[in-house]
Amino acid sequence: MPAQPPSYSMISVSLSGYRLWSTGIPAVMMGWILILVSDGQPADRGYSGTAAEADLRGVKKDCERKGIFLVVAAIGNDKPNIERIYGDSYLDITVLEKLPQKLTQVIKRHIRI
């Protein structure tokens, strides 16, 4: 069973794990785009609400500091909450047929074309 920091949801554990793994990547290779698909707010047994949201905002900031561009693609009924948590990293993929165009727009915004 993998170790879990007590104050992280499963989503933030995954993002934190990626962030830690990326420490060994040379700076020249940074600028990667990490895409997370989520169907809801961060929640686990006894862990939810503003504390969980703050954790995810912190992980997002850590990724940004490392040069990792985070895109959180949302499906399901919690899209407004996911957008509130991730801000400019949010991408609505309710209509999957529009995903290629939307993702292209996000990437262009990131690389400033």
Kindly describe this structure.
There is one protein chain. The protein is α/β, with parallel strands linked by helices and 113 residues long. 44% of the residues lie in helices and 13% in strands. It has a three-stranded parallel β-sheet with strand order 1-2-3, with helices on both faces. The N terminus is likely disordered.
> Helix content range of the residues, please?
40-55%
Radius of gyration: 14 Å
Regions with little confidence, pLDDT below 50 for 5+ residues: 1-8
Instruction: Record the strand order, biggest sheet.
Output: 1-2-3
Portion of residues in beta strands equals 5-15%
Distance between the termini: 43 Å
How many domains is the backbone divided into?
A: 1
How many helices? The count is 4
- Please describe the biggest sheet, giving its number of strands, its sense, and whether it closes into a barrel: 3 strands, parallel
| Overall pLDDT level | 75
Shape: globular
